[in-house]
Structures are given as structure tokens and as C-alpha cells.
Design goal:
The structure is a single chain. About 30% of the residues lie in helices and about 20% in strands. It is α/β, with parallel strands linked by helices and about 450 residues long. The protein starts with 10 loop residues before the first strand and ends in a 6-residue tail after the last strand.
Length: about 450
């Protein structure tokens, strides 16, 4: 029975795969819409239950950054200092005419006075530029308040390239303190800005999937600290797939903790990876914007945004529910208006068990583009790329079918719970395939 109360006839069958005590079984025949659906749907979703049956697909998780790939990798370099009388100030910037847009409050987050070091990712100019800064606080008995605090950083148009500059910044932050305050010399920063191409090790970017000219899929390049995604995934446990659903829905997600913010910045990046896919035919499916660290000065900007992932240190954000859909503190996830998606269900538990074992599967373990063996983390990222590709493909096939009907059998075959995931799937399908209807099911 459809939403309109009409009976829908189905034709052909395909065998529903189910998991029982960690073993895979084909248990009973279920109706589907057409033979073409059977072929494509079974192939695209096979890896959920039979991983070896699905070809490895190349992918790129961040299409919104791809337009900037040919732009200069550094837009500016800067040094921020804490002045006891003025607060955070720009001590140096190059080029001198670039507008830094309150970078002094991004590169040195609120609450940094209680820590000695941090690494900060942030965005400026409405996310047209991204920043990476290294913060240090040193004890100095001769200084006012007995300490000095500085940040040195860069701005670039592509956040996937930012961490490549970290080795230089780590080396230079110590030199900035050694320069003294009388006649500081920032020639090294200017030289780096002008000659950065010779100093960056491009091999540090891991190509998880190569490009595929046949499908038009771009390469999936991951540029972050190795191990951060694995730590992120295991830390959240089953709740990882709650975050996954929120990420696929492109919800406004805010992470909160006290400084340092580096761990949260990695969580922001990893949340975007949860939604990684290579779906070229679905407009907007990969445009999930990471803002990284934000503060109170960003409120006028984020009030205009319908989708983003960010992290904060100010507690006041916890009280501003109009600014977020999902608020994450530690591993506690709060979603005041999305309670139906908030709790992990049986399907999430089963999926998380498969996810933890993905590194043992031959398909996920195929060599990287450079021929090296993938890490546990690489396999985990591949798991989500293929999971998302399959979900998009399954819905696309249904949307192109004659009846355009999603049944509970289809939902189960997608690895979702036909009742507990109903709200999520309806919203997700409605965003990309608005002509789909859902079968009315009084129970599972």
C-alpha cells in the first residue's frame, strides 16, 4: 500500500541477504520492481553482504574543494601574537594587502591561555579560504603575565592541502619566539610563501581510490593525520552510524570541547568523510562544508548556512539551538529536532560489526594507488565510500523504475532498518529523488 492507498504490483524476485550470528544467508524471495532493478541493485549493494562481489570504486569525498585544485596553494602567511593590553593582534602578514578577516581570533582560539600548544584548522571569507595555524605558549618571567603566546599559520584555498604545510609551521613557530620583539625578521615566512612548491612533499597525500575515466569518478585523496579516522570511528562505536546519517543529510553539526581544538578539527574532517561518495549524477551529494573551528564572530555567517560541520570552544553555543541540528560533546550526541535518528538501531549494530572487520576483506584491502598496502584506516574510509555509493545507486534505480516505490524489503536490502530508519531514508531520498514514494508499513 502506497501513501496514496493504491496497491502496487511487483514483478520478478531477488533474494534478500540477511546476517545471522555473523554468517551470511540467503533466506527468502522478495518482490522487487523490475529485472533491471534486480541486476543493478544487487550489484551495487552486494558489498554490504558479499563484499567480494562488488568492484572497487574510485571516489572523491569533497567535490566543493575540487574547483580550487588549480589555485595557488598558499594565499597568505601570518603571525598572531597575544598582547596583554590589546588582546590577539596580527603581528605580521604577507602579502601585506590581503584582508585576514579576523584571523587573529581563529588562529588563537578562545581559551588558549590554559594550554601550551595547539593545531587549529579554520575557514575565512565564507569558506573561500582555509587556515592552518600552530599555537604555542611559553613561560617568560620578563613578559607581562609571565608568558608569551603566538600562532604562525597559512591560508590556502583547499583544506585538503593544509596539513602539508604543518612541518614548516612546526619548525617556524619556535623560530618566531627566538626572533625577539625588537626587530623581528619574517623573511623565512615570505620565502616559504613564494617558494612553497619546492618544500611540500606531495606524497604525503594518500590516494585511497584512483580516478576512473570510464565512470568519470575522481580520485579519493585523504590528507590528514594517519590514524585519526580509525580513532574517531572506534571512539563513537555504534553511534558512528548515527553521525553517518546526519552527515548524509548534510545537517548542521557542531563539536564542542575546551582547547586544544586539534582533535575536534580532525573530527570535523572525519565527519565529512562519513558522507564521501563518487555519485556524479546526483547534484549536491558531495557538497558538505567543513568550517572547522568557529567562534562567536562567525554567528552572523553560519546563521545563513543550511549545512556545515564545525567545532567550538565557547559554551554559549550549547544554548543556541537555532544554530545547529546536531551538537556533539565528547561522544554525547544531542539532536533536539531529530530524535527519530538519534539512537543506534539493530541495523547500525550489525553494520558496525561488519565495519570493524572490513580490513579483513580482500576488496577493501586492495593496494593504494602507489602500490602500498592500505592501512586499517584506509579500509574504513573505503567502507563508507562504497556504502554511500551503493545507497545512492539503489535509490537511483528505484527512482528510474516504473512504480518509484520503496518497500520495506528494499530498505532491508540497503542495510537499513525498515522502521527505525524510515525518517532518515525518507528525508535522504526526498533531497535527491523527490519522486520516490514509500510503502506504508504499520510494523516491521
Amino acid at each position: 500500500r502506497s501513501w496514496r492507498g493504491k496497491e502496487k504490483k511487483t514483478e520478478n524476485i531477488f533474494l534478500e541477504p540477511q546476517i545471522c550470528h555473523g554468517r551470511q544467508h540467503r533466506v527468502r524471495a522478495l518482490p522487487v520492481l523490475s529485472s533491471s532493478f534486480t541486476a543493478v541493485f544487487s550489484s551495487s549493494l552486494a558489498f554490504l553482504f558479499w563484499p567480494s562481489a562488488s568492484p572497487l570504486a574510485p571516489s572523491s569525498p569533497h567535490s566543493h574543494a575540487e574547483g580550487n585544485r588549480d589555485a595557488p596553494s598558499i594565499a597568505a602567511v601570518f603571525v598572531i601574537s597575544f598582547d596583554p593590553r590589546k588582546g590577539n593582534v596580527v603581528e605580521f602578514q604577507y602579502p601585506p594587502d590581503i584582508k585576514l578577516d579576523e584571523v587573529e581570533f581563529k588562529a588563537m582560539p578562545s581559551g588558549s591561555h590554559i594550554i601550551d600548544s595547539d593545531v587549529v584548522y579554520f575557514s575565512v571569507h565564507n569558506s573561500s579560504l582555509y587556515g592552518l595555524s600552530l599555537f604555542r605558549r611559553i613561560h617568560d618571567e620578563d613578559a607581562v603575565r609571565g608568558m608569551q603566546a603566538k600562532s604562525v599559520g597559512i591560508l590556502c584555498p583547499n583544506y585538503e592541502q593544509m596539513f602539508l604545510h604543518r612541518p614548516f609551521l612546526e619548525d617556524h613557530i619556535e623560530k618566531v619566539f627566538a626572533l625577539g620583539s625588537d626587530v623581528p625578521n619574517f623573511d623565512a615566512l615570505v620565502a616559504y610563501y613564494k617558494n612553497f612548491r619546492a618544500q611540500i612533499d606531495a606524497a604525503a597525500v594518500r590516494v585511497i581510490f584512483p580516478a576512473d575515466e570510464n565512470t568519470g569518478a575522481c580520485a579519493l585523496q585523504v590528507a590528514h593525520v594517519v590514524g585519526s579516522f580509525e580513532d574517531f570511528a572506534l571512539r563513537f562505536g555504534r553511534q558512528l552510524f548515527v553521525l553517518w546519517k546526519f552527515a548524509l543529510l548534510h545537517k548542521r553539526i557542531i563539536f564542542h570541547s575546551k582547547p586544544p581544538v586539534y582533535g575536534m578539527c580532525q573530527d570535523v574532517y572525519n565527519t565529512c568523510l562519513l558522507a564521501a561518495n563518487t555519485t556524479q549524477a546526483v547534484e549536491g551529494s558531495r557538497n558538505y562544508t567543513p568550517l572547522f573551528y568557529i567562534n562567536l564572530l562567525d554567528i552572523p555567517n553560519i546563521q545563513k548556512l543550511q549545512s556545515y560541520v564545525a567545532c567550538v570552544t565557547e559554551r554559549v553555543f550549547d544554548e543556541k539551538e537555532e544554530l545547529f541540528d546536531v551538537f556533539v560533546k565528547g561522544t554525547s550526541i544531542v539532536a533536539p529536532r531529530l530524535a527519530a535518528i538519534l539512537r543506534p538501531n539493530q541495523a547500525d549494530t550489525a553494520r558496525f560489526a561488519r565495519f570493524k572487520m572490513c580490513h579483513r576483506d580482500a576488496e577493501y584491502g586492495q593496494p593504494l594507488a602507489d602500490g602500498s598496502a592500505p592501512s586499517m584506516e584506509d579500509c574504513m574510509i573505503r567502507f563508507f565510500v562504497r556504502l554511500n555509493n551503493a545507497l545512492f545507486e539503489a535509490l537511483r534505480v528505484l527512482a528510474e523504475s516504473q512504480h518509484k516505490m520503496v518497500t520495506k524489503e528494499h530498505v532491508r536490502a540497503m542495510g537499513l532498518h525498515p522502521v527505525d530508519d524510515r525518517v532518515f531514508l525518507e528525508e535522504f531520498a526526498g533531497a535527491y529523488f523527490p519522486y520516490l514514494t514509500f510503502e506504508v508499513q504499520p510494523c516491521c
